[in-house]
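[agent] plan:
  1. take the single chain provided in the ticket
  2. run structure prediction with default settings
  3. attach structure tokens to the ticket
  4. add a short note for the reviewer (M.T.)
[agent] executing step 1
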Amino acid sequence: LRSPLFAPSAVAPFSTKPKKPVNAYIRFSLDHRAKVLESLGAQPKVQEVSRATSELWKNMSEAQKAPYKEAYKQANDKYLVEYQNWTEKQPDAVPEPTPEKKKKRSLSGYNLFVKEFAKQDGVER
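[agent] step 2 finished; step 3 output follows
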């Protein structure tokens, strides 16, 4: 049995949805991954690669980070325009936010006692 959430008719509106761009740090890490792998030697662990890449990013000046941040900003601006166009073409694809329902607390022992006592007195609370 397949879930109706994954039926082709349910997925179709989202197949054309534009994807969010990667942020500045991810762009940097993709550009420098080969260099980091080379500097760490044979078969480094993923954690070591991530740690080395993040150290490089932290030690960079804002001027060095600027091209990555600018590329992200341009890609994000393009994404926002594409997303706006997509939502206009697919009004049913963007769900309306539903108000959160407050969970009903279970009655405590005291509340149950008072409720039962009120029934005996003929008073409904």
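[agent] step 4 note for reviewer: The helical segments are 8-15, 24-40, 46-59, 62-89, 109-121.
[agent] ticket updated
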